[in-house]
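Journal club prep, shared notes

We agreed each person brings one worked example of a sequence with its structure written out as tokens. Mine is LuxR family transcriptional regulator. I'm keeping it raw so we can talk through how to read the token line rather than staring at a rendered picture. Sequence first:
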Amino acid sequence: MTLRLLVVDDHPVVRDGLRGMLGTQPDFEVTGEAAGGAEALTLAEALRPDVILTDLRMPEPSGGTLIRLLLERVPDTRILVLTTHDTDSDVLPAIEAGAIGYLIKDAPREDLFRAVRAAARGETVLSPSVAALLLARVRPQWSAPRALLSAREHEVLTLIAEGRTNREAAAALFLSEATVKTHLLHIYAKLEVPDRASAVAAAHRRGIL
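Then the structure, token by token:
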């Protein structure tokens, strides 16, 4: 069975990359591409794809609003979010709107392929950082201290606390070393500390780690 896919992203390079990547699989067919929410709605109704892979922050409608509108118009289509954003304000509205899966764009290609097939079967697929965020939401007594950091920042800090270098943390999370350094700077700012050791100490003191 060939799965018919619609790719929605406002960056042409990303759309081209996804089309090329997905096209390597014999059971995938990218039937259309959209650069924004309005175009996605039109194409979804016309093409009736099995799975829509969509970013969240695009020309309106976007995010949870776009997902709700898509499911109103093509209720049998599965929505798989593929984005760089894994904060509460992005993840929760998307899941609540009806997205069956949520992947971060740095996921390995094999994970993306598995996610598309699982979504088509009606199975929920989540990146580890997103799963951790949702688990934290249903366990508030555990999540309250760590809510200060995003799920990705918590992953980075956990690896740093284990003694990993920036390069090792980047490899473990399939990120660039520069991205890990950016996450660390955000962590320092949020914890009001100057360096790695202080960040780890502060995180333990606050119950984040």
